[in-house]
Amino acid sequence: MGSPKANLTPLSSLRVSKHQIPVHHRIPNTSIQHKPLLHYHAAFARESSSASAIESHLAAVGVVDPQWRYTMYSTTHFHSTTHELLCIARGGARLCFGGEDNPGRVEASVSRGDVILVPAGVGHRLLEEEGHEGFEMVGSYPKGCSWDMCYGKEGEEAKVEGINRLAWFEKDPVYGEEGPALDV
User: Which residues form the Cupin type-1 domain (predicted)?
Assistant: First the structure.
């Protein structure tokens, strides 16, 4: 018996939201590399978007390493050492990107099968879970990258400067040779 298979929405039918989010206080958001927050709506078909199927699919594409299954922290945080790929495997939620007090923030409702590509520096947090089945994501990072936790506090300036040196994706982490990550 093999791994469960994930079915992707064809690129020609995929709806993608792109957001540039301005710097807010000490949260750089997309202001450093100018790569947008990407929301792939229903990239994985609902019936094939289990955590195991998503992990198996991402491993086969080979761009990112799935590292955890969890919800999202309810405190705004960002990563300075890596970009992050979040694939919704169960439930739904309202998420905030950019800092809850940022007039340029993005609040997104996500559900099973959605994918969010969070560039390094973009603040993110859980606002609320939706539904009764529990909210779970598969969190992944580009191969060879380790994530850190930053909170937009004094003393993180050197970490933030390092975002400039991070490579962007040469292949889309979900679709491979083509895909939204390559169209930015």
Answer: 76-128
- Bridge partner list, 43: none
> CATH number for the domain including 118?
2.60.120
In a domain, 142, yes or no: yes
- 27-82, pLDDT tens digit by residue? 999 999 999 999 999 999 988 789 999 999 999 999 999 999 999 999 999 999 99
User: Is the overall model pTM greater than 0.85, yes or no?
Assistant: yes
Domain count, the chain: 1
Distance CA 22, CA 99 (A): 10
CA 100, CA 14: separation in Å to the nearest integer?
Answer: 28
Measured in degrees and rounded to the nearest 5, phi and psi for residue 5 equal -100, 135
Give the domain extent around 51: 11-165
Contact criterion met (CB below 8 Å) for 43 and 9:
yes
First to last CA, the chain: 39
Residues 123-146 have pLDDT tens digits of 999 999 998 889 999 999 999 999
One-letter amino acid for residue 77 of the chain: H
> Tokens 């792939």 belong to which residue?
40
Amino acid at residue number 127: L
